[in-house]
Amino acid sequence: MWKPRLELILAFAFAGALTVGACSPALAPPSVDTPGPASAATTASGSGRVPTTPVPGSPASSRAPTPTSSPSPVHPAKVFLDPGHGGVDTGTIGYTDDGTMVEEKTIALAIALKTAELLERDGISVELSRTNDSLPGSTPADYVPDGTTLTPDGVLDDLQRRIDRANASGASVLLSIHLNAYDDPSIGGTETFYDSSRPFAAQNERFASLIQNDLIASLRAKGYDTPDRGIADDQDLITDRFGTLGEDYHHLVMLGPGVPGHLNPSKMPGALSESLFLSDPAEATAANQSSMQDLIAGSYTRAIEQFLGNPGQRHTTSH
User: How does DSSP classify residue 257?
Assistant: First the structure.
């Protein structure tokens, strides 16, 4: 979701976080999220975050059916998954080692659907901001005249609709799923963002840590040396304010506080994950592989279940 910025997508208004590093054997190293051409006026495909200066060194359209045999006990909590971007908003765009184009919106959706399936198999109810390549609820007013991109107001309206759906779902936790990008293709890694200004700041930080730690452990277990960029407070980012959120608004829209008359905030703990950098060909190659998407989805599932205190994780993979 970033461009020359880190793409925190949807939790912020656009995109990206970056980190240096090489993935590891047989998988592409992580890249930074750079908004694609379909996200006009946004730097982080629908997440509202802008790139920060990196410090070196440091296709699914429907959800797979849930098995009906041996169902797990129903967990009282609900999870809201937000695959960033969609439709004309491609998010960051990268290229694999063999030159294949990879769009953030496609990878984010694939990971979200896999995560939803795993959670539902474990008896946890899931709602998604989108389940196909679209921007649910968008209107002609959200687009530029030729319909090829969203306007700045259109991006903010899309993020608000996602937040509204999350709030209406009654979810206990929100995970916004993105991939990163940066101008320097050698920059890569895994990073997770949270917001420390909310009433549930401690829960936000704990959830972000669970996501980051499990994902890094899973990558290491499979032989990847993807850089661990750690967790970061979104207040440290340069974010897109869409012209209406004020000069002092330094938050990812999906995670941050509200702005009277302009933005109604999410009502549950949450985090925004930038699993890999699509701007790094090695990481883009890895992200485009179903096995890597499975790995990321498994990590998200374990972290979410641990956050919720769910005892049984029968359908998740082990490290």
Answer: -
